[in-house]
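Title: Prediction job returns without error message
Component: structure pipeline
Severity: low
Priority: P3
Assignee: unassigned

Description:
Job completed but the reporter wants confirmation the result is attached to the right record. Sequence as submitted:
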Amino acid sequence: MATAKWLKKAGRPLRQGSFLRRVFSLASNEDCDRYPHKVDLDWDNLEFKYRQTDSFRVHTWTKTTGWDSGESIEDGKLSISPMCPALHYGQQAFEGLKAFETEDGDINIFHPDDANSARLNASCERMCMPEVPVDLFNEAIITAVQENRRWVPPYGKGSLYIRPFIIGTSEQLGLAAASEYKFIVSVMPVGTYYTGSGNGLNALIMSEFDRAATRGTGVVKVGGNYGADLLPNSLCHARGYDTCLYVDSQTQKYIEEFSVANFAAITPDGAYVTPESDSVLPSITNKVLMQLAQDSGMEVQRRPVPVDELDQLSEVAAIGTAVVVNPIGSITMGDHRTEFNYPKTLTALKAQLLDIQVGDAPDHRDWLLSVPE
């Protein structure tokens, strides 16, 4: 630890070393009284699950007023009509970001190039909902984190998951876009999405189901895409697998994405490969990892990835905000199973990303949004 601090004072970047230091910190079992300014939680054993925190933010939009200045709600409940389009016609969209505490106690939100705001607005356009201006989006997520600062996990112990979402809330019966909307930001501390997956997840290609169709809503982040995954994901688990992998709906010859994450791989010659498809959600984490790969001199290929190519890939991982970089140990389609090496290259890119997120490496591209005290 002393060596790491000396390196920081000397101006030398902390990358792999700082990642290992956090891993060591995770293995320790400090008492909760070490963090008197935090909520009393077992920070060493956080799960990826819902926790009610101190408050959430709500902004309301109407045709006459546009977006209001917002309010904070502390009881964990939201009052809406049972006849709103969000409940009946799926008129909604959501996002996912994370906030991290640095070793010095500062808090940063990872929001590279305002990408989550832009992706939410792409979803809003597809679902006939009003745009959420980037300034309002950033103000709302910063305020939500500020008001729940004591729920931000200590340095190296996890992250504060930020869930911005927009729903149509006007009362109506027929199929039509709502006349009123709510933009909401909830936050909660989280740990690893997949637990016990150190040796890699075992994925099953669910060829009898489609996650999304070409020209559908797969390219945006809306609840219906995830609802379509509930049954196949349940069947996948019942068959002894950890996650689903979907192929294209038209030919079933090309890989698309996992249940809740993008597909990324490393080829034998060291190229970073990820599918290009109009029905795959563009992951912000995947985009950042591609940039880090390019920065390190790797070739990045965003292209159709045939199922037949699986046997030729060296590493595979599930990529996303929730899962970050989760190793894939095997992929099964029918009676054919392909196994993969532990993703050393993808894990090294993950280490670079985590170092930037927690402030241990320079943020040269201004990917972090600082949260004032």
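Comment from assignee: result matches the submitted record. Residues 166 and 183 are 4 Å apart (CA to CA).
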